[in-house]
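Hi there, hope your week has been kind to you so far. For a while now I've been wondering how a particular protein folds. I'm sending you its amino acid sequence along with the backbone structure tokens. Could you read through the record and tell me how the tokens relate to the sequence? Take your time with it, there's no hurry, and the full record follows here.
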Amino acid sequence: MATLQREAEIRRTTKETDILVRLNLDGTGETDIDTGVGFFDHMLDAFGRHGLFDLTVHATGDLQVDAHHTVEDAGIVLGQAFAQALGDKRGIRRYGSLALPMDETLVLAAVDFSGRGALFWDVDVPAGMLGAFDTSLGKEFFIAFAANAQATLHVRELAGENSHHILEAAFKACARAVRQATEIDPRAAHDLPTTKGLL
């Protein structure tokens, strides 16, 4: 039986950004990230490595304005890549969750690839800049990702003080929750994980 190729390549070009994403859900965590925003590169690298997704994200954007459009549009395209790579979602576990500790920080992420994209964010990140990355952009990224991946995503900060730790824990927790949810369940490899017959 042929192995299902759960991969996607999507390019999105607007007057503000040019984003290319390549994704392999069944990879080993190899990443090739270049967005022009150092902290965001660090977060996407962590997302790929902790999710064991082979992930390329190349982005050019209007960084002379700020990083908002680059970060948000990367979330859009990455979400679209997940939706495309998952296909009809047959055989996936559908749900994933993890509480991830990082020093003083503890962040919970829970995801359902339900077909109903929405973010529920209860993360108190101190306002400020991490290099060229405004800390408010973490939420903007995950709004775009969840909507376009057609996933219900909850992210909740249970403890934390340091902005870098809080956002990094959020990205890593989401990556590991998404990894769980998108893995093929060998006990139900040909079934849809729903009573509706459609996800």
